[in-house]
């Protein structure tokens, strides 16, 4: 069977047509729906802990002269992974088992910081000569609310809190958003390759490998050569998978405008 006869084959036409239809439907659905997806991750780094040890002695941790059981730096990163740009995105950070203290915020790759929302500013407003109420301290130590004037596709924000867990467990700080048509997903720490999660790169790499294997079986007569090529590809399957995902991301951004 020559190449022309191969492409004229009824089975090949059916497979190619089916795959083309799936890809077209997927792209069309993505363009029509354009549902917003934000993802965020949280990492905690212990700064110090108050402890008493018979061998190493006593260690006391304090913040601004006030003793605390422990201190952590918790970093939250949230990314706009959708094909849309958004305005006036309201982001809430909250906890029920952690004392949130000072903060540092940034809209990554810009000199801008995140501003508190007007609603949150009003909640914490203290008249000159007065002191914050207990309710205001509870609000400040338990939640924050920010406004992002413009949040473009592929942009990320970064928030770092100095905090103290109220128990011996790791602190817990979460995000929520108030934005129509946007879903927020939490993602735990992931190993990456070329900026792509390894599990995703491996999955796509395997799919590409199946296509490569089919092509080798069709066009290469020597089975030993097919076996060697397949084994070699298997060793580096994550790389083409990662490049394919990055190419799809660029295509998605181009389609999104």
Give an overview of the whole structure:
With 257 residues, the protein is of the alpha+beta class. It folds into two domains: 94 residues, no CATH class; 154 residues, Immunoglobulin-like, CATH 2.60.40. Helices cover 39% and strands 35% of the residues. The chain contains seven helices and 15 strands. The strands form five sheets. The chain has a five-stranded mixed β-sheet. Strands 9-10-7-12 form a four-stranded antiparallel β-sheet. The longest helix has 24 residues. The radius of gyration is 26 Å and the shape is elongated. The mean pLDDT is 80.
In short:
This protein is of the alpha+beta class and 257 residues long. The chain is 39% helix and 35% strand. The model has no long low-confidence stretch (mean pLDDT 80).
Q: Count the E strands.
A: 15
Number of helices: 7
**Largest sheet composition:** 5 strands, mixed
| Spatial ordering of strands, largest sheet | 8-11-6-1-13
CATH class of the largest domain: Mainly Beta
List the topology elements:
Elements lengths: L2 H6 L1 H24 L2 E14 L1 E3 L3 E3 L1 E3 L2 E3 L1 E11 L5 E9 L3 E10 L7 E2 L1 H7 L9 H9 E9 L4 E10 L8 E5 L3 E5 L5 E2 L2 E2 H22 L3 H13 L2 H18 L2
Parallel strand pairs: 1-13
Antiparallel strand pairs: 1-6, 2-3, 4-5, 6-11, 7-10, 7-12, 8-11, 9-10, 14-15
């Amino acid at each position: 069977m020559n190449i022309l006869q191969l492409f004229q084959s009824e089975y090949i036409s059916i497979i190619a047509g089916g795959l083309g239809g799936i890809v077209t439907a997927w792209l069309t659905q993505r363009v029509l729906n354009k549902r917003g997806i934000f993802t965020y991750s949280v990492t905690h780094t212990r700064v110090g802990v108050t402890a008493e040890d018979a061998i190493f002695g006593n260690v006391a941790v304090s913040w601004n002269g006030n003793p605390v059981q422990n201190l952590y730096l918790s970093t939250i990163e949230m990314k706009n992974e959708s094909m849309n740009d958004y305005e006036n995105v309201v982001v809430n950070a909250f906890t029920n088992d952690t004392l949130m203290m000072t903060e540092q915020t940034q809209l990554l790759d810009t000199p801008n910081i995140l501003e508190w929302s007007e609603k949150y500013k009003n909640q914490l407003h203290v008249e000159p000569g007065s002191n914050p109420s207990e309710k205001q301290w509870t609000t400040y130590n338990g939640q924050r609310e920010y406004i992002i004037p413009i949040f473009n596709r592929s942009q990320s924000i970064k928030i770092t809190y100095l905090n103290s867990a109220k128990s011996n467990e790791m602190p817990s700080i979460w995000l929520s958003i108030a934005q129509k048509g946007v879903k927020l997903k939490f993602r735990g720490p992931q190993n990456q390759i070329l900026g792509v999660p390894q599990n995703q790169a491996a999955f796509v790499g395997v799919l590409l490998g199946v296509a490569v294997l089919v092509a080798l079986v069709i066009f290469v007569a020597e089975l030993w050569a097919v076996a060697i090529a397949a084994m070699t590809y298997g060793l580096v399957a994550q790389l083409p998978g990662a490049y394919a995902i990055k190419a799809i991301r660029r295509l998605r951004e181009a389609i999104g405008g």
